[in-house]
Design a protein that fits this description.
The structure holds 3 protein chains of 3 kinds. Chain A contains 16 helices and 2 strands. Chain A is an all-alpha fold. The two termini of chain A are 33 Å apart. The C terminus of chain A is likely disordered. By secondary structure, chain B is an alpha/beta fold. In chain B, the strands form 5 sheets. A 5-stranded mixed β-sheet of chain B has the order 2-1-3-14-6, sandwiched between helices. Chain B has a 4-stranded mixed β-sheet with strand order 8-9-7-10, with helices on both faces. Chain B has a two-stranded antiparallel sheet with strand order 4-5. In chain B, helix 3 links the parallel strand 1 and strand 2. The N and C termini of chain B lie far apart (73 Å). Chain C is built from 18 helices and 4 strands. Classes of the chains: A mainly alpha, B alpha/beta, C mainly alpha. Chains in contact: A-B, A-C, B-C.
């Protein structure tokens, strides 16, 4: 058996540094894992064992019970399963969509030049504002939308000819990320009205669309940095060989960007997986997701710690599985293989 | 370049219109929430009620809050009701903090996804104003099933009624009582001064035999939860003495807040003093925490709704079975003279409802979960929804539900006090049942019960203004003067925004004051 | 060219090559100079970006405009419709000058001597950087105006901090409390996340295990993390209770002390969000070309040199992004203080979004939106300033 502290390559660090590394890694692991252990222990307790004081070891200082697990998994079976399925569907599809949209946009912002004209943007803003004003004033929203777009199309050419100021890629990127500044609390009611108008309340689709819009800016920003760090020579070589942009992206860029893509996918998946406020407003029965169930355990009786612990634990299992499966793609073996192959 | 923009603009339009058309159908009804199977219930209780009616094919969407309580009995009994009448009841459950927003949004935007609600009767002002709720007056008066006269007079005449009309069917009776350890305390406190004395006597002693010092009083003081209700309970006897109709929040002629005077200052001071005998982190405890502390024997006294009575019985939640007594919320030997803003001693004129010189004013905080019906629902849904709520409230069903700790329902009918068998069945001794039900009965029959605020924007008055100010007071950020000023300014601001006359009218309506 | 002061000499062809990492401008020139395929493939540039723009336009702009309308309105819920009554600046007036002033801005008192010293030092820094940014290079009138406005705002915020935190009897409102959370949180989370990523990137046995474990806190729903920390920090029946007992603090509780409560919130926030920094930096470190590092070592570079000359430049761009994202997300902190303390003791831990949430849940949507817009204004200014700063100092975006 090889000594784990032994030095293997010039990049390796000294045994003493390795020892320190292990101490630090294990120390932080303990900080991360202890609260989770406490959740696991709490899920096995009766209310009275939670209230009487801290007990740490099942069988040793309290008698464990599966009551909370039975209640959540069997007695409430369907009421747990439905949000669970919703969470999986909404989380995966919104993260997947956000990754596709966001990473292509990020690539475009790194490799292409955009010069949107200030005049056109201002015109668009004016048209949008006028359309909203009309809707608030009682005009049917379909009519307002169509006429807003029509006015924009009519005036666009004239305005574009006169306006000289342009924006750059950086401005587009900043505009995208700025969409995340406003706290969700301020936008959920308008979103509710929006989805109510188009009849999408309490559907998975509404949640997926909202999460895509909310998470795409993060994907763009993270992926932009990963793309910028990629060596451009490979793409140049492919372009010289006559490959199309799509082909270059698919067979040159994406394979090298896998670590970034995986990390970003995990982050957006987690954001969508765990989102609470938008879900609570946009869903009522069919489309409820798991965070709502967790929050619901704090009701008139105070938090039902045991049930809450069970829910949190079953909620993180799929994400952990995803992380375990995807983690290997964040490692350099794949990357080097892709670049060389 | 330009032509491209136009092309794109046209494309956006196309997408937008296409998506609009495909989504233009109104949102379909929320799918069913499968009822939770329950271990305790066997046969559908025989009921004269719904048996005669046939609602086959009718589905009622009922909104209530998510969680182990309240929704539980509704979900448990929905299949029984379906077997009796054919009506399917879908219990849609959302978070406690969000029901209000969801219900109002749903009703005001005309979405109307819900036919019935089981919610907080404090919101009646907000819900009846725009005409969201069905008037149930004629239904309850002629219906033998709901047995309206059996409902406690306070819940019937005040809680379920707004502006002289019945809008809700009570499913739960909520008011504060004080719980004490009957094995330690012989004479439960009559006044808040007694309360402090008893708390002081037992504070720091070991009350449950685990060798650690325990606490004299546990009251959940966490911000954003129940603080603002307890302070009204403490202040109740000082603020209101002439009966429920007098009101404890506003002057019923000027709509000036009553919380800026010697009486409320004294209540604040007493409330803060209870912290001297409480757990060190009492300021951050919610009602779940204090219930846990009390039922594990760590507190000599606690103030709570009816829940501790049933929670203390269950070995899964309690180590103090048969050691718990309940008593009407303590009162005061002084009360507010509204003309001067000063405290005066209680006598036959100042405190006409006093018992042995103590002016009690038990506080029906929250008021108890109640069923209401959406006025915009289809007629057959209204009928079925009413039949279900009446079935839930009928003595046959509710007498059992109020004895179960897990339901979160507390007694509110005369028959709940008279049928002692059901209480024995869940493990209450005769003596304990007498004590617990006696305290409830004493509170309910007190004509000076304090009705919780129910005017429009009640949540803003209580949760935004009162709760924050009281939390700042007990944390030491504000002194009593500043606290009362902040409450008065905040309340007057809300009143003036809505319109003082409209709010005054609403307050009078909520109290049933005829002028 | 903004490459001043950065060591770029180690690597002739890899990721730190200035022509590669300098961002889009140089890239573009390099690629466009190839001609042919890139230009003719005109559709791609639109196909790549428009779906994102459209999604954002439809799902972000409408709520943005609608909530701006709300901020100047009061809502009346009627049957079948919601009336939006325009009330002008009333919501802002109440927040900034009316009954909510002490909750938003805090209780302002004259600064202590220490407060004056801090204010003086801070003001000097602000003025120096303003003068520096106005005199260095060509500045257009509009740019100058914006910079002066930014400096005035910064000075105002500093004055607010000094009056609430460094004064006799003052106390911070949700604005200053939120800034404490954000700035303390970013520093601690970034340093911890970077340290953990550097540890976990080493070729150690069992590193996969550590990587998965370190991601765990991020996978839990923020509400769940909030409740978990409430259990952990319960001084009566929480698992740390014996530790408090051992330290002779059996009767101590953090919940009554404003600073202890704020630190508890920051600890919870850090536990939850450090993995975000960790996972992004880990991916960036893994993307480093190891051959470059090996070559450097062969050339006799030390670990420290390799860190500062290869690792740091490579992760700097993504680090600036992480800080920007955490800045934006951090200002929205709500679940942790809401669940842990409800904003208490008093208003000591109340964040801006929590204050907005309290108004939201009583359907006071106008005031809630007004708070959100105050936050939007503040964060936009800070984020713009931050981006402008890094464009000058670190890299073009």
């Amino acid at each position: 058996m090889a000594n784990p502290l032994r030095r293997r390559s010039p990049l390796d660090i000294s045994p003493a540094a390795k020892l320190v590394s292990y101490v630090l890694l294990i120390g932080w692991s303990f900080i991360v894992l202890f609260p989770l252990y406490w959740l696991a222990v709490t899920s096995l307790k009766l209310p009275v064992d939670v209230d009487r004081g801290p007990f740490y070891l099942p069988f040793v200082d309290f008698q464990p019970t599966l009551a909370a697990w039975r209640n959540i998994l069997f007695e409430l079976g369907d009421d747990t399963l439905r949000p669970y399925v919703n969470t999986i569907v909404v989380g995966l599809s919104s993260a997947g969509l956000a990754l596709v949209l966001g990473s292509t946009a990020a690539y475009a912002l790194v490799r292409f030049t955009y010069r949107p004209r200030v005049g056109l943007i201002a015109l668009g803003a004016v048209c949008v504002a006028a359309a909203y004003g009309a809707i608030l004033g009682g005009v049917p929203w379909q009519l307002a939308a169509v006429s807003g777009v029509a006015v924009f199309a009519l005036l666009a050419q004239a305005v574009a000819r006169r306006s000289r100021g342009t924006l750059a890629n950086d401005d587009i990127a900043f505009w995208l990320i700025s969409q995340r500044i406003l706290p969700p609390i301020a936008i959920v009611i308008p979103l509710y009205v929006l989805f109510q108008q188009v009849g999408l309340l309490d559907t998975q689709l509404a949640l997926v669309l909202t999460y895509v819009a909310a998470n795409v800016p993060i994907v763009v920003w993270l992926m932009r940095d990963y793309f910028m760090a990629l060596p451009v020579e490979l793409e140049e070589a492919a372009a010289v060989d006559g490959a199309s942009v799509y082909r270059i992206v698919r067979s040159v860029v994406l394979p090298i960007a896998v670590p970034g893509l995986v990390a970003t996918f995990l982050i957006t998946l987690i954001f969508a997986w765990n989102e609470y406020l938008i879900a609570v407003v946009l869903s009522s029965a069919k489309a409820q997701t798991m965070p709502l169930l967790v929050a619901a355990q704090d009701a008139t009786r105070g938090p039902q710690w045991w049930a809450m612990s069970v829910l949190v634990l079953i909620m993180i299992v799929p994400v952990i599985i995803m992380a375990v499966v995807l983690e290997r793609y964040i490692s350099r073996g794949i990357l080097v293989g892709a670049v060389k192959g | 370049m330009v032509s491209r923009y136009r092309l794109v603009a046209a494309a956006i339009t196309a997408i937008f219109i296409a998506s609009a058309c495909s989504g233009a159908t109104p949102s379909s009804a929320p799918a069913s929430v499968a009822p939770a199977p329950s271990a305790t219930v066997a046969e559908p209780a025989p009921s004269a009620s719904a048996a005669g009616q046939d609602f086959t094919g009718v589905t009622v969407e009922l909104l209530t809050f998510n969680g182990p309580q309240i929704a539980e009995p509704l979900q448990r009994r929905a299949p029984d009701f379906e077997a009796l009448t054919g009506a399917k009841i879908n219990v849609v459950a959302v978070g406690f903090q969000e029901i209000y927003d969801k219900a109002i949004l749903d009703l005001s935007t005309g979405t109307n996804s819900f036919d019935a609600f089981v919610f907080n009767p404090q919101w009646l002002g907000d819900f009846t104003g725009p005409g969201y709720l069905e008037d149930l007056t004629s239904r309850v008066e002629s219906d033998p099933v709901v047995d309206w006269q059996d409902v406690g007079p306070f819940f019937r005449d005040f809680n379920a009624t707004y502006g002289g009309k019945v809008y809700t069917i009570p499913l739960d009776g909520d008011f504060h009582m004080v719980y004490y350890r009957s094995d330690l305390i012989d004479t439960p406190p009559k006044t808040w001064d007694d309360y402090l004395a008893v708390a002081a006597e037992h504070h720091g002693k070991d009350l449950n035999g685990d060798g650690e010092p325990d606490y004299g009083s546990c009251i959940a003081k966490k911000k954003g939860q129940q603080s603002f209700w307890w302070i009204i309970s403490v202040a109740g006897g000082l603020l209101q003495s002439k009966g429920t109709g007098e009101g404890a929040f506003f002057d019923t002629t000027t709509m000036q807040p009553l919380l800026n005077n010697e009486a409320f200052a004294k209540a604040l001071d007493t409330y803060k003093k209870t912290m001297d005998f409480g757990p060190p982190d009492e300021i951050n405890l919610g009602v779940g925490d204090t219930r846990g502390l009390f039922t594990t024997g760590r507190c000599a006294l606690s103030m709570d709704w009816g829940d501790i009575g049933t929670l203390a019985l269950d070995p899964a939640t309690s180590t103090v079975q048969d050691k718990v007594g309940a008593v009407i919320t303590p009162g005061w030997t002084q009360t507010l003279d509204r003309a001067t803003g000063k405290l005066v001693a209680c006598d036959a004129t100042t405190c006409p409802n006093a018992v042995d010189g103590v002016n009690y004013a038990p506080f029906a905080s929250f008021g108890g979960w109640s069923g209401a019906i959406n006025a915009a629902a289809a007629q057959e849904k209204k009928d079925a929804a009413y039949a279900f709520l009446a079935y839930m409230s009928a003595p046959a069903q509710s007498s059992e539900d109020v004895t179960l700790g897990k339901t979160g329902f507390n007694p509110y009918r005369t028959s709940h006090f008279e049928t002692r068998d059901v209480w024995k069945a869940v493990g209450m001794s005769d003596q304990a049942a007498d004590n617990y039900l006696g305290a409830i009965e004493a509170s309910l029959q007190n004509p000076n019960m304090v009705l919780d605020l129910r005017i429009p924007k009640t949540k803003e008055y209580e949760q935004d203004v009162l709760d924050v100010a009281v939390s700042q007071y007990i944390a030491g950020e504000l002194n009593a003067e500043e606290t009362m000023q902040q409450i008065t300014d905040g309340w007057n601001q809300i009143t003036d925004q809505v319109g003082r006359d409209a709010q005054l009218k609403a307050y009078q309506d909520s109290l049933g004051v005829q002028r | 060219m903004a490459s001043s002061g950065r060591p770029l000499d180690l690597d002739p062809r890899g990721v730190t090559n200035p022509d590669v990492t300098r961002g889009p401008r140089l890239h573009r020139r390099a690629i466009l100079s190839l001609g042919g395929g890139w230009r003719s493939d005109a559709a791609a540039r639109w196909v790549f970006i428009w779906p994102t723009v459209v999604v954002i336009l439809f799902l972000s702009i409408f709520p943005l405009v609608a909530s701006l309308t709300l901020a100047f309105s009061e809502l009346v819920f009627a049957r079948g419709r919601i009336e939006v009554d325009f009330v002008g600046l009333q919501n802002f007036q109440i927040l900034l000058f009316g009954t909510e002033r002490t909750h938003l801005l805090g209780l302002l008192k004259p600064p202590t001597p220490l407060g004056w010293v801090i204010f003086g030092l801070g003001l000097t820094v602000i003025l120096r950087s303003l003068v520096g940014s106005l005199t260095g290079g060509h500045v257009r009138p509009l740019g100058a105006l914006l910079r002066i406005a930014g400096a005035v705002l910064a000075a105002g915020l500093l004055w607010l901090v000094v009056q609430t935190l460094f004064s006799e009897g003052g106390r911070p409102g949700s604005l200053v409390v939120t800034m404490i959370y954000v700035f303390a949180g970013i520093v601690v989370q970034f340093l911890l996340g970077l340290g953990l990523a550097l540890l976990a990137v080493q070729p150690l046995a069992g590193r996969r295990f550590f990587r998965i474990v370190f991601m765990l806190p991020l996978t839990i729903t923020p509400i769940g993390v909030g409740y978990m920390f409430r259990m952990m920090t319960d001084t009566g029946k929480g698992p740390l209770e014996p530790i408090f007992g051992l330290l002779g603090m059996g009767q101590y509780t953090w919940v009554t002390d404003p600073w202890a409560a704020r630190i508890a919130v920051i600890i919870g926030d850090t536990w939850q969000w450090t993995p975000f920094v960790f996972i992004v930096l880990l991916a960036a470190l893994e993307g480093l070309d190891q051959e470059v590092r090996e070559a450097a070592f062969v050339d006799g570079a030390s670990h420290r040199q390799s860190f500062w000359h290869i690792t740091v430049p490579a992760i700097l761009p993504v680090s600036t992004t992480i800080v920007l994202i955490r800045l934006i997300e951090g200002f929205k902190i709500v679940d942790m203080p809401n669940i842990l303390t409800g904003g208490g003791p008093g208003t000591a831990t109340q964040s801006l979004t929590l204050q907005a949430y309290l108004d939201w849940r009583t359907l006071n949507l106008g005031r809630s939106a007004a708070i959100a817009y105050i936050l939007l204004f503040l964060v936009t200014v800070i984020a713009t300033g931050y981006v402008a700063w890094w464009r000058r100092r670190i890299r073009p975006v």
